[in-house]
Write a structure and sequence with these properties.
The protein is globular, with a radius of gyration of 21 Å. The two termini are about 20 Å apart. A three-stranded mixed beta sheet has the order 1-3-2. It folds into two domains: about 50-140 and about 195-260, no CATH class; about 145-190. The protein has about 270 residues and is mainly α. β2 (about 100) and β3 (about 105-110) form a beta hairpin. The chain contains twelve helices and three strands, in the order ααααβββαααααααα. The chain has helices at about 5-15, 30-40, 55-70, 75-80, 110-115, 120-135, 135-160, 175-190, 195-210, 215-230, 235-240, 245-260, and strands spanning about 85-90, 100, 105-110. The protein binds zinc ion (ZN). Zinc ion binds near residues 128, 132 and 199.
Length: about 270
Amino acid sequence: MRSHLPGVLLSACLLAGCAGADFRLPQITAAEVDRAALVIDGSKPGVASNARSDAENRALVSRVANRLGDSIGPLCRQSEIEPCWFDITYDADDEVNAYAEGSNRIHILRGLLRYLDSEDEVAAVVAHEIGHHLGDHIAEKQDNAAIGALLGALLMGAALGAGGYDPAYDTSNSGQQAMEQSMRLGAQIGAISYSKSQEREADLFAAYILARAEYDLDKAGHVWVVLAKMDDKTHASLLDTHPAGPERIVAWDKAVAEVKNSPDLLPDPD
Ligand SMILES: [Zn+2]
Protein backbone atom coordinates (compact mmCIF):
# COMPACT_ATOMS: atom_id res chain seq x y z
CA MET A 1 0.00 0.00 0.00
CA ARG A 2 3.00 2.26 0.47
CA SER A 3 3.58 2.37 -3.25
CA HIS A 4 0.61 4.70 -3.73
CA LEU A 5 1.49 8.25 -4.68
CA PRO A 6 1.13 10.33 -1.53
CA GLY A 7 -1.25 12.79 -3.21
CA VAL A 8 -3.55 10.02 -4.40
CA LEU A 9 -3.43 8.34 -1.05
CA LEU A 10 -4.15 11.54 0.79
CA SER A 11 -7.15 12.55 -1.26
CA ALA A 12 -8.61 9.02 -1.29
CA CYS A 13 -8.24 8.99 2.44
CA LEU A 14 -9.86 12.35 3.01
CA LEU A 15 -12.78 11.48 0.77
CA ALA A 16 -13.48 7.98 1.93
CA GLY A 17 -12.06 7.98 5.44
CA CYS A 18 -8.71 6.36 6.08
CA ALA A 19 -9.86 3.25 7.75
CA GLY A 20 -13.45 2.30 7.16
CA ALA A 21 -14.97 -1.12 7.57
CA ASP A 22 -15.71 -3.33 4.60
CA PHE A 23 -18.40 -5.34 6.35
CA ARG A 24 -21.76 -4.36 7.75
CA LEU A 25 -21.16 -3.50 11.41
CA PRO A 26 -23.71 -3.85 14.22
CA GLN A 27 -25.57 -0.59 14.92
CA ILE A 28 -25.99 0.29 18.57
CA THR A 29 -28.07 2.81 20.51
CA ALA A 30 -27.30 4.92 23.58
CA ALA A 31 -29.96 3.08 25.61
CA GLU A 32 -28.31 -0.24 24.83
CA VAL A 33 -24.95 1.14 25.92
CA ASP A 34 -26.47 2.31 29.22
CA ARG A 35 -27.91 -1.15 29.86
CA ALA A 36 -24.54 -2.78 29.16
CA ALA A 37 -22.85 -0.35 31.58
CA LEU A 38 -25.19 -1.64 34.29
CA VAL A 39 -24.22 -5.23 33.46
CA ILE A 40 -20.53 -4.34 33.84
CA ASP A 41 -21.15 -2.57 37.14
CA GLY A 42 -23.27 -5.43 38.39
CA SER A 43 -20.79 -8.20 37.59
CA LYS A 44 -18.55 -9.34 40.39
CA PRO A 45 -16.11 -6.67 41.54
CA GLY A 46 -12.45 -6.66 40.56
CA VAL A 47 -10.73 -8.86 38.05
CA ALA A 48 -9.45 -12.19 39.30
CA SER A 49 -6.14 -13.45 38.00
CA ASN A 50 -5.21 -17.08 37.47
CA ALA A 51 -1.94 -18.82 38.26
CA ARG A 52 -1.28 -20.80 35.09
CA SER A 53 2.39 -21.50 34.40
CA ASP A 54 4.12 -20.39 31.20
CA ALA A 55 4.03 -24.01 30.01
CA GLU A 56 0.28 -24.18 30.61
CA ASN A 57 -0.25 -20.84 28.87
CA ARG A 58 1.81 -21.97 25.90
CA ALA A 59 -0.20 -25.18 25.61
CA LEU A 60 -3.45 -23.21 25.87
CA VAL A 61 -2.44 -20.75 23.15
CA SER A 62 -1.32 -23.50 20.84
CA ARG A 63 -4.61 -25.37 21.36
CA VAL A 64 -6.52 -22.20 20.50
CA ALA A 65 -4.29 -21.54 17.48
CA ASN A 66 -4.86 -25.04 16.10
CA ARG A 67 -8.58 -24.99 16.67
CA LEU A 68 -9.04 -21.57 15.04
CA GLY A 69 -6.63 -22.38 12.23
CA ASP A 70 -8.54 -25.54 11.33
CA SER A 71 -11.80 -23.73 10.67
CA ILE A 72 -10.88 -20.32 9.36
CA GLY A 73 -10.42 -21.17 5.66
CA PRO A 74 -13.70 -19.73 4.29
CA LEU A 75 -13.12 -16.41 6.10
CA CYS A 76 -9.62 -16.13 4.58
CA ARG A 77 -11.07 -16.82 1.15
CA GLN A 78 -13.73 -14.16 1.61
CA SER A 79 -11.06 -11.62 2.60
CA GLU A 80 -8.64 -12.92 -0.08
CA ILE A 81 -5.97 -13.74 2.50
CA GLU A 82 -3.44 -16.19 1.11
CA PRO A 83 -1.86 -18.24 2.60
CA CYS A 84 -4.46 -18.73 5.31
CA TRP A 85 -2.01 -19.18 8.16
CA PHE A 86 -1.41 -17.08 11.28
CA ASP A 87 1.73 -17.21 13.35
CA ILE A 88 0.44 -17.03 16.94
CA THR A 89 3.05 -16.54 19.66
CA TYR A 90 2.81 -16.59 23.44
CA ASP A 91 5.16 -14.06 25.03
CA ALA A 92 6.21 -14.54 28.67
CA ASP A 93 5.90 -10.81 29.26
CA ASP A 94 3.86 -9.19 32.01
CA GLU A 95 2.49 -6.38 29.90
CA VAL A 96 -1.31 -6.68 29.59
CA ASN A 97 -1.45 -6.90 25.84
CA ALA A 98 -2.13 -8.77 22.62
CA TYR A 99 -1.45 -7.44 19.15
CA ALA A 100 -1.26 -8.22 15.46
CA GLU A 101 1.71 -7.24 13.32
CA GLY A 102 3.24 -7.88 9.92
CA SER A 103 1.21 -9.87 7.44
CA ASN A 104 0.19 -12.77 9.69
CA ARG A 105 1.77 -12.50 13.14
CA ILE A 106 -0.10 -12.33 16.44
CA HIS A 107 1.27 -12.02 19.96
CA ILE A 108 -0.60 -12.70 23.16
CA LEU A 109 1.21 -11.82 26.38
CA ARG A 110 1.29 -13.46 29.79
CA GLY A 111 0.12 -10.24 31.45
CA LEU A 112 -3.20 -10.51 29.63
CA LEU A 113 -3.57 -14.30 29.88
CA ARG A 114 -3.43 -13.95 33.64
CA TYR A 115 -6.91 -12.41 33.47
CA LEU A 116 -8.43 -14.85 30.98
CA ASP A 117 -9.81 -17.95 32.63
CA SER A 118 -11.55 -19.91 29.92
CA GLU A 119 -10.17 -21.14 26.62
CA ASP A 120 -13.15 -19.38 25.01
CA GLU A 121 -11.89 -16.00 26.28
CA VAL A 122 -8.33 -16.64 25.08
CA ALA A 123 -9.76 -17.67 21.72
CA ALA A 124 -11.78 -14.43 21.59
CA VAL A 125 -8.62 -12.32 21.95
CA VAL A 126 -6.70 -14.33 19.36
CA ALA A 127 -9.70 -14.27 17.00
CA HIS A 128 -9.96 -10.49 17.41
CA GLU A 129 -6.30 -10.10 16.39
CA ILE A 130 -6.84 -12.44 13.43
CA GLY A 131 -9.75 -10.14 12.58
CA HIS A 132 -7.32 -7.23 12.22
CA HIS A 133 -5.41 -9.31 9.66
CA LEU A 134 -8.56 -10.37 7.81
CA GLY A 135 -9.66 -6.73 7.64
CA ASP A 136 -6.24 -5.63 6.34
CA HIS A 137 -6.18 -3.14 9.21
CA ILE A 138 -2.41 -3.21 9.66
CA ALA A 139 -1.78 -1.98 6.13
CA GLU A 140 -4.47 0.65 6.69
CA LYS A 141 -2.71 1.70 9.88
CA GLN A 142 0.57 2.02 7.96
CA ASP A 143 -1.21 4.15 5.39
CA ASN A 144 -2.43 6.35 8.20
CA ALA A 145 1.14 6.58 9.51
CA ALA A 146 2.45 7.50 6.05
CA ILE A 147 -0.24 10.15 5.72
CA GLY A 148 0.61 11.45 9.18
CA ALA A 149 4.28 11.76 8.18
CA LEU A 150 3.33 13.55 4.99
CA LEU A 151 1.07 15.99 6.81
CA GLY A 152 3.77 16.58 9.42
CA ALA A 153 6.28 17.40 6.68
CA LEU A 154 3.83 19.66 4.85
CA LEU A 155 2.99 21.60 7.99
CA MET A 156 6.65 21.88 8.97
CA GLY A 157 7.65 22.92 5.44
CA ALA A 158 4.97 25.61 5.50
CA ALA A 159 6.12 26.81 8.91
CA LEU A 160 9.77 26.94 7.86
CA GLY A 161 8.92 28.68 4.59
CA ALA A 162 6.84 31.28 6.38
CA GLY A 163 9.77 31.96 8.69
CA GLY A 164 12.05 32.67 5.74
CA TYR A 165 13.96 29.40 6.13
CA ASP A 166 16.16 28.56 3.15
CA PRO A 167 17.97 25.19 3.30
CA ALA A 168 20.87 26.62 1.25
CA TYR A 169 21.85 28.78 4.20
CA ASP A 170 21.25 26.18 6.90
CA THR A 171 24.80 25.34 7.98
CA SER A 172 23.67 23.58 11.15
CA ASN A 173 21.09 21.45 9.36
CA SER A 174 18.55 22.40 12.02
CA GLY A 175 15.76 22.88 9.49
CA GLN A 176 16.34 19.40 8.09
CA GLN A 177 16.32 17.93 11.59
CA ALA A 178 13.13 19.76 12.49
CA MET A 179 11.53 18.46 9.32
CA GLU A 180 12.52 14.86 10.12
CA GLN A 181 11.31 15.19 13.67
CA SER A 182 8.02 16.56 12.46
CA MET A 183 7.58 13.63 10.04
CA ARG A 184 8.24 11.16 12.82
CA LEU A 185 5.72 12.86 15.06
CA GLY A 186 3.14 12.85 12.28
CA ALA A 187 3.77 9.15 11.66
CA GLN A 188 3.23 8.37 15.31
CA ILE A 189 -0.04 10.21 15.38
CA GLY A 190 -1.23 8.23 12.36
CA ALA A 191 -0.04 4.93 13.80
CA ILE A 192 -1.35 5.27 17.31
CA SER A 193 -4.39 3.10 17.05
CA TYR A 194 -6.95 1.34 14.98
CA SER A 195 -10.10 3.26 14.23
CA LYS A 196 -13.29 2.46 16.08
CA SER A 197 -14.80 0.87 12.99
CA GLN A 198 -11.70 -1.31 12.53
CA GLU A 199 -12.04 -2.48 16.13
CA ARG A 200 -15.68 -3.26 15.64
CA GLU A 201 -14.92 -5.06 12.40
CA ALA A 202 -12.22 -7.13 14.15
CA ASP A 203 -14.78 -8.09 16.82
CA LEU A 204 -17.29 -9.02 14.12
CA PHE A 205 -14.71 -11.25 12.43
CA ALA A 206 -13.87 -12.72 15.83
CA ALA A 207 -17.50 -13.76 16.39
CA TYR A 208 -17.54 -15.60 13.04
CA ILE A 209 -14.12 -17.15 13.64
CA LEU A 210 -15.15 -18.44 17.08
CA ALA A 211 -18.47 -19.80 15.82
CA ARG A 212 -16.70 -21.73 13.07
CA ALA A 213 -14.33 -23.23 15.65
CA GLU A 214 -17.38 -24.07 17.81
CA TYR A 215 -16.34 -21.96 20.76
CA ASP A 216 -19.02 -20.75 23.17
CA LEU A 217 -19.70 -17.18 21.98
CA ASP A 218 -21.34 -16.09 25.22
CA LYS A 219 -18.46 -17.36 27.35
CA ALA A 220 -15.99 -15.83 24.91
CA GLY A 221 -17.75 -12.46 25.13
CA HIS A 222 -17.09 -12.36 28.86
CA VAL A 223 -13.58 -11.22 27.94
CA TRP A 224 -14.95 -7.79 26.96
CA VAL A 225 -16.50 -7.47 30.42
CA VAL A 226 -13.14 -8.36 31.98
CA LEU A 227 -11.40 -5.73 29.83
CA ALA A 228 -14.05 -3.16 30.69
CA LYS A 229 -13.41 -3.79 34.37
CA MET A 230 -9.71 -3.25 33.84
CA ASP A 231 -10.38 0.03 32.07
CA ASP A 232 -9.80 2.10 35.19
CA LYS A 233 -6.49 0.45 36.01
CA THR A 234 -3.30 2.15 35.04
CA HIS A 235 -1.64 -0.75 33.20
CA ALA A 236 -3.00 -1.73 29.86
CA SER A 237 -1.29 -0.65 26.73
CA LEU A 238 -3.96 -2.99 25.37
CA LEU A 239 -6.58 -0.53 26.46
CA ASP A 240 -4.74 2.36 24.88
CA THR A 241 -5.10 0.68 21.54
CA HIS A 242 -8.31 -1.26 22.04
CA PRO A 243 -11.70 0.02 23.08
CA ALA A 244 -13.22 -1.52 26.15
CA GLY A 245 -16.54 -0.82 27.70
CA PRO A 246 -20.26 -1.04 27.30
CA GLU A 247 -20.35 -0.06 23.63
CA ARG A 248 -18.15 -2.96 22.76
CA ILE A 249 -20.30 -5.38 24.73
CA VAL A 250 -23.47 -4.24 22.99
CA ALA A 251 -21.80 -4.56 19.59
CA TRP A 252 -20.57 -8.02 20.54
CA ASP A 253 -24.03 -9.21 21.56
CA LYS A 254 -25.38 -8.01 18.22
CA ALA A 255 -22.56 -9.68 16.33
CA VAL A 256 -23.32 -12.93 18.17
CA ALA A 257 -27.01 -12.66 17.25
CA GLU A 258 -26.01 -12.06 13.63
CA VAL A 259 -23.67 -15.05 13.61
CA LYS A 260 -26.34 -17.32 15.07
CA ASN A 261 -28.68 -16.36 12.20
CA SER A 262 -26.05 -16.49 9.49
CA PRO A 263 -26.72 -19.19 6.87
CA ASP A 264 -23.10 -19.39 5.66
CA LEU A 265 -21.13 -18.18 8.72
CA LEU A 266 -19.62 -15.34 6.70
CA PRO A 267 -20.08 -11.63 7.47
CA ASP A 268 -22.13 -9.54 5.03
CA PRO A 269 -20.16 -7.07 2.89
CA ASP A 270 -21.21 -3.49 3.53
ZN1 LIG B 1 -8.11 -4.51 18.09
